[in-house]
Amino acid sequence: MREIRPGVWFVEGENRGRYPFAHSLFVDGEEGLLIDTGVGPALESLVPKTRQVVLSHFHRDHVARNHLFTAARFAVHQADAPGVENAEHFYRFSGLSQFNIEAYWRMVSQIKFMPTSIDRYLQDGDLLDTGRHSLRVLHLPGHTQGHCGYLFEEYGFVFATDIDLTAFGPWYGNPVSDLEQFRSSIGKLRALKPELIATGHSMPTAKNIDSKLAAYAEVLDRRDQKILNAISEKPLTLAEITDKKFVYKRHNGQEVLRYFEEQMVRKHLESLVRIKMVTVTSDGLYSATN
Ligand SMILES: [Zn+2]
Question: Which residues surround ligand 1, an ion (CB under 5 A)?
């Protein structure tokens, strides 16, 4: 744990917070508050001090150790709450119901679904209070419908959770993910001009934040361009574009990764069709308009 601002602790996830782990934030106060529970076993030391657990979104790598916090109240944005409370909604939100899920859970280190009951449903702009600090809920949809970051106005600090500033770039592979919302949410963060930022999968930084956010958004433009280049040569189906592995580079024979890639490619194509840069025939062949 590292105190990055007085009373605000960055809790580093195992394996540098790489999936299936994630970084957390702990905020001191009589009502000690923890954002996300994907750090790993080290979180156990925070159980006695944590009165409230706030979840950034429904993904398992951010909620994996909710069960440790038996005495805490739980909060999450209202749009993602069903995916935390109920297995059926989790599978629907994630698109994972069609897969051999046991094999998938083994692959991602056993973070299988366990329901959590939610005490508070959050909305954009809500204030969370620990008695020492207050932090504002920033609804940043796109990654999931209810994905949120948290703003400490007094410090100009944002915990941006899965607008995660990794080199991989934005991830929107669930049926409930939305590419255009993701772009807008990055824009919303840039407009705030944070002085310090940390995310669920990258370390806190105060340097060149705006250019890091801009570079992260540019990954989306590059994916658009790769798809456009491919279908400029000849019309292709969604499956053919998916097999080019523009997002994941390899699927390692994992049908779940291929599925996520297909979801993301589909969202690019839909957005390019909307702005008339791409047309699609009735038999599902995509081509670039000139
Ligand atoms: Zn996520």
Answer: 59, 162
